[in-house]
């Protein structure tokens, strides 16, 4: 029986993957050809979706992007045996897009049936958990510390230090909370791993529980991800059946359970303390710090709060060792990062690379330039609170420290491209407006400052002369300084970054 892989993933579905399942099954039945349709995740090449693959005698062969109109022609071309066709891609992993990546966290994504424990184990799955069960808390945390893994959600805080803090707390209950409230514009790595390799997240959370002495985990999932919820629940059920979750995991005497909690539909709930408030059934508002969540977190108990990619990176570290993982990257930015390329780009998708390549290399080598073919004018990295970089800064290395030196931040790794048709004054206004809409309202600098910011930018672009415009620029600068210094969290504190970067690098757009 020939295996035909069709992604069960949101991007592919939005482009017709679900329709392909029925169309291919019906055509195969009509032609009396015996096939098995396997629902894998996406490999991350959004520009090739829906990407279908066939397991042939010479390996897996890809075709894409495929539509229902292609199905009859594909069967006529004997695609189930790798036949020639206009949509033939050949060995997908040999394509430059994949061949030039370093896939550690996403090594299985798009290759296996997403929720299959057997297929997950066949490619190294649960080896890290078994290694963790064979060591103690100190040993696990030391591996994490030596790996150099830092929070992939944006804060880049060392994971080992966070785990050590929770482990050292004396409490009758501790929690592992996965922040899966992926709300930054241009980001989708969390969703891709949860829909394509969810067991890696479950394994990472379980290892975290062993490390700090927690037996309960929660995945706080973005409310806009209903398919992800279904896939995660399937994966949890399969892991429980295989005794990799639940009571007495693999006869170790250790227990850990995981529950999926749907988010509140608020961007601010991506901030860890607001998330915890929401998880407790309260309004999603920022908590004052200290105390830190690691000491007083969910229900007042010591809590590890890590994002999806941080936790999904844990299994490969425990499987292959901290030195292997730390062998990628540069300086203090060790390991790999899943960069997500979107916006006005020809080849959008997810690229996992070791830290150190430049922004230009990412955009040109993997993205192949703008979709319109017009010159690139601006790039925003790090979500809606990230800086806007002009073409002159594209040679900045994708590294936490190097990006900070250039006035930006890597954040969650989202990269959004704009061509020369963009108006950067409008983008700056959007940043302030976004903050005004999404603010939790707890602190004045964010709640009021963002509203005043929109008004000031409107006055700048409508100013009748340079003197009036300059006076409003002074007001905007003072306002941004106040928001940056006095806001309770990053929502208000980072909003000035995209605004002032637009003013700095694209001043002409504010004079129109």
Explain what you see.
With 512 residues, the protein is an alpha/beta fold. The chain is built from 23 helices and 16 strands. The chain folds into 4 domains: 2-99, 3-Layer(aba) Sandwich (Glutaredoxin), CATH 3.40.30; 117-325, Rossmann fold, CATH 3.40.50.11540; 328-419, Roll (Ubiquitin-like (UB roll)), CATH 3.10.20; 424-511, Up-down Bundle (de novo design (two linked rop proteins)). A hairpin with a 5-residue loop joins strand 12 and strand 13. Helix 18 runs antiparallel to helix 20 and helix 18 (424-438) runs antiparallel to helix 23. The mean pLDDT is 96.
Quick rundown:
With 512 residues, this protein is of the alpha/beta class. It has helices spanning 10-14, 17-30, 71-76, 96-99, 117-122, 127-133, 137-147, 159-167, 189-196, 198-212, 226-241, 272-279, 308-312, 314-320, 322-326, 359-366, 400-405, 424-438, 444-447, 449-461, 466-486, 490-494, 496-505; strands at 2-5, 35-38, 52-56, 59-63, 88-90, 175-180, 216-221, 257-262, 303-307, 329-330, 333-334, 336-343, 349-354, 376-381, 388-390, 414-419. The chain has a 5-stranded mixed beta sheet with strand order 2-1-3-4-5, with helices on one face.
Write the layout of secondary structure elements.
Elements: E1 2-5, H1 10-14, H2 17-30, E2 35-38, E3 52-56, E4 59-63, H3 71-76, E5 88-90, H4 96-99, H5 117-122, H6 127-133, H7 137-147, H8 159-167, E6 175-180, H9 189-196, H10 198-212, E7 216-221, H11 226-241, E8 257-262, H12 272-279, E9 303-307, H13 308-312, H14 314-320, H15 322-326, E10 329-330, E11 333-334, E12 336-343, E13 349-354, H16 359-366, E14 376-381, E15 388-390, H17 400-405, E16 414-419, H18 424-438, H19 444-447, H20 449-461, H21 466-486, H22 490-494, H23 496-505
Parallel strand pairs: 1-2, 6-7, 6-9, 7-8, 12-16
Antiparallel strand pairs: 1-3, 3-4, 4-5, 10-11, 12-13, 14-15, 14-16
């Amino acid at each position: 029986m020939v295996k035909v892989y069709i992604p069960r993933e949101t991007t592919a579905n939005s482009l017709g993957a679900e329709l392909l399942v029925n169309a291919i099954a019906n055509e195969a039945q009509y032609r009396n050809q015996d096939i098995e349709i396997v629902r894998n995740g996406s490999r991350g090449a959004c520009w090739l979706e829906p990407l279908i693959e066939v397991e042939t005698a010479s390996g897996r062969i890809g075709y894409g992007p495929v539509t229902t109109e292609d199905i009859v022609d594909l069967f006529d071309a004997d695609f189930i045996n790798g036949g020639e066709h206009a949509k033939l891609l050949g060995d997908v992993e040999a394509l430059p897009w994949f061949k030039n990546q370093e896939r550690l966290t996403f090594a299985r994504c798009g290759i296996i049936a997403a929720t299959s424990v057997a297929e997950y184990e066949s490619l190294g799955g649960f080896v890290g958990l078994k290694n963790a069960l064979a060591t103690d808390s100190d040993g696990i945390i030391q591996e994490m510390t030596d790996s150099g893994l830092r929070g992939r959600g944006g804060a880049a805080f060392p994971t080992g230090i966070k785990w050590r803090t929770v482990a050292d707390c004396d409490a009758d209950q501790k929690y592992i909370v996965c922040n899966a409230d992926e709300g930054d514009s241009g980001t989708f790595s969390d969703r891709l791993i949860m829909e394509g390799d969810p067991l890696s997240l479950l394994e990472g959370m379980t290892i975290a529980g062993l490390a700090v002495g927690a037996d309960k985990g929660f995945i706080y999932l973005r409310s806009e991800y209903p398919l992800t919820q279904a896939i995660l629940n399937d994966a949890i059920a399969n892991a429980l059946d295989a005794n990799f979750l639940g009571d007495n995991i693999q006869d170790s005497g250790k227990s850990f359970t995981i529950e999926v909690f749907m988010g509140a539909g608020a961007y601010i709930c991506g901030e860890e303390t607001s998330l915890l408030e929401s998880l407790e059934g309260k309004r999603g508002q920022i908590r004052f710090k200290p105390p830190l969540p690691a000491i007083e977190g969910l229900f007042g108990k010591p809590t590890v709060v890590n994002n999806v990619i941080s936790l999904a990176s844990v299994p490969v570290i425990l499987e292959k060792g901290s030195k292997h993982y730390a062998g990628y990257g540069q300086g203090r930015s060790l390991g790999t990062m899943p960069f997500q390329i979107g916006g006005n780009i020809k080849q959008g998708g997810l690229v996992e690379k070791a830290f150190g390549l430049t922004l230009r290399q990412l955009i040109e080598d993997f993205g192949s330039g703008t979709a319109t073919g017009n010159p690139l004018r601006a790039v925003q990295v790090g979500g809606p609170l990230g800086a806007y970089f002009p073409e002159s800064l594209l040679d900045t290395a994708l590294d936490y420290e190097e990006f900070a030196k250039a006035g930006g931040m890597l954040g969650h790794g989202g990269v959004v491209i704009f061509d020369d048709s963009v108006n950067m004054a409008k983008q700056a206004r959007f940043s302030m407006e976004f903050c005004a809409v999404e603010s939790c309202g707890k602190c004045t600098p964010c709640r009021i400052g963002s509203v005043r910011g929109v008004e000031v930018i409107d006055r700048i672009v409508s100013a009748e002369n340079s003197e009036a415009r300059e006076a409003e620029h002074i007001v905007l600068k003072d306002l941004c300084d106040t928001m940056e210094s006095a806001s309770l969290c990053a929502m208000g504190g980072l909003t000035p970054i995209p605004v002032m970067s637009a003013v700095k690098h694209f001043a002409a757009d504010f004079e129109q």
